Amino acid sequence: MTKKELRKKYKELRNNLSFDEIEDLSLQIANNALKLPIWNFENYHIFLTIHEHKEVQTDYLLHILNGKDKNVIVSKSDFETRTMNHVLLTDNVIIKKNEWNIPEPQNGFSVADNQIDVVFVPLLAYDVFGNRVGYGKGFYDKFLSQCKPDVVKIGLSFFDPEKLIEDVFTEDVRLDYCITPNTIVKF
Length: 187
Hints:
Layout: H1 3-15, H2 19-33, E1 43-45, H3 59-67, E2 71-78, E3 83-88, E4 95-97, E5 103-105, E6 110-111, E7 118-121, E8 125-126, E9 132-133, H4 139-146, E10 152-156, E11 177-179, E12 184-186
Parallel strand pairs: 1-2, 1-7, 7-10, 10-11
Antiparallel strand pairs: 2-3, 3-6, 4-5, 8-9, 11-12
């Protein structure tokens, strides 16, 4: 299937999930994350959930990261340049939804792309090769291409992988893992 077809399919599949199901599945994903060999790093980038899009709830992962005393980094999107600015998430950071309902930091200490060790990546779909389909704006591909070469890229999904995404581009950055409620897929 093409990215466009997959976006439509997985938006519909997510839309059919109840908020209770999303909460249960998100907790299972967070529990599976504990099985990954990633907990010796310091700087973890995580997306803040867009509840209206029925994304994986990252609150559970945030609790794990805080419990392990890790540096948590969140981003604010610049829609003109299609880039993201990252800040260290502390108690003093104010989070506010933008016009697209994306929760974003309004202040905080800046963090450079190359300081990040692990990135939890939002997605709509992914394939068995680690290619992902996002919302189509290219924010994460641009961001991940600026990170250090050994940054660990982890997708979070309620669903199993597709066999193939037909229209992958050379600029698309592949995942290293994808965590689902049932398993961890390694690429």
